[in-house]
Amino acid sequence: MPRMNMLQAVNSALRCELQHNPSVIIFGEDVGKFGGVFRATANLQKEFGEHRVFDTPLSENGIVGAAVGMAIYGLRPVPEIQFADFIYPAFDQIVNEVAKLRYRSGGQMACSMVIRMPYGGGIRGGHYHSQSPEAYFAHTPGLKVVIPSTPYDAKGLLTAAIRDDNPVLFMEPKKLYRSAQGEVPEKSFEVPLGKAKIMREGDDFTLICYGSMVPISLEAADKAEEEGVSIEVIDLRTLIPYDLKTLLQSVKKTGRVIVTHEAPKTCGFGAELAATITEKALLHLESPVYRVTGFDTPFPYVHEEEYLPTSTRILKAVQASLLF
Fold first, then answer.
1. Where are the alpha helices (DSSP H) in the chain?
2. Best exposed site among 2, 7, 28, 99 by fewest CB in 10 Å?
3. Cα–Cα distance, 179 to 151 (Å, whole number)
4. Cα–Cα distance between 32 and 317 in angstroms, integer?
5. Active site residues
6. Which class for 229: exposed (0-12), middle (13-18), buried (19 or more C-beta within 10 A)?
């Protein structure tokens, strides 16, 4: 089985789906001949032609609007938004058209599409190339939100998303594009949406994470083990719908919960998880649910490392919980 980084895994998933389904269409800014700003679509236009992999003007509203029309007529568009930070001009199309088309049509029309976008910090992109807007879309009924953390999951989840009949926002942690590596099958396969993965078992804490926070969380768990604290690390993989059953099983075992993500703390997705866990498992909790997140400021350039959650910050939350 070949080893791939996350970019190669995404490219492999797209290639397999272009081969598997002639209705799959890929388009966006610079995704064709250039292969995308991160090269996620490299060589796909050359292999499948300009009618299936093509460039668009710099108009996110137009990109998603065109995808809506394609989906209505039976295609499976996979538009790319060059950076998640640029998604906002298409916000109206996504929340008012893409997410509501099935409901609005009484189930007569689907809006089967996957909107791919690199998100998050870690590459010195500054505040216009480092945002984590997942909570905006997790708040919108009708959308699925998926975030992989490994190359294997990137290929499997993206394949499942393209084959899903519902619209999916597929958010790729660009910090992990080349740093995350692992064995990935060359052939097509699916990782089911809505199923979390226990990355490391533990007894004392449940640490919930996703995307680029998964390796940070595993690092924190390794350090905590040296101090005699056992942390169970759970990668959500799918934010909407998320795997509440797996989370509650872990919480009832450990009694202590930390949620980490790099988006700002206020109204971040961790707040939803904390509230739901408190509602469903209050009597099993030994302390409050702690959140280790980005700060409620625009994403900084110079102080990027101070903004992003670290294993040290997670371990501080562990100590605070143990002292409660």
1. 6-20, 44-48, 60-72, 91-92, 101-104, 134-138, 151-163, 213-226, 244-254, 269-281, 304-307, 311-323
2. 2
3. 10
4. 45
5. 129
6. buried
Sign of the Cα pseudo-torsion (97, 98, 99, 104, in order): positive
List pLDDT tens digits, range 135-171: 999 999 999 999 999 999 999 999 999 999 999 999 9
Convert 191-216 into a string of H (helix), E (strand) and C (coil): CCCCCCEEEECCCCEEEEECCCHHHH
Closest CA to 292 of 275, 272, 268, 276: 268
* CA gap 147, 167 in Å, rounded: 14
- Please say whether the beta carbons of 230 and 202 come within 8 A: yes
| Sign, CA torsion 3/9/11/12 | positive
Coil, helix or strand at residue 156: helix
Q: Pick the closest to residue 175 from 143, 210, 208, 200 (CA basis).
A: 210
The answer to whether 225 and 273 have CB atoms below 8 angstroms apart is no
Q: Please tell me the pTM assigned to this model.
A: 0.97
What is the distance, to the nearest Å, from the Cα of residue 279 to the centroid of all Cα atoms in its chain? Answer: 25
Q: Is the pLDDT of residue 324 over 90?
A: no
C-alpha to C-alpha distance for 98 and 15, rounded to whole angstroms: 24
Average pLDDT of the chain? 97
Tens digit of pLDDT for each residue in 107-143? 888 899 999 999 999 988 889 999 999 999 999 999 9
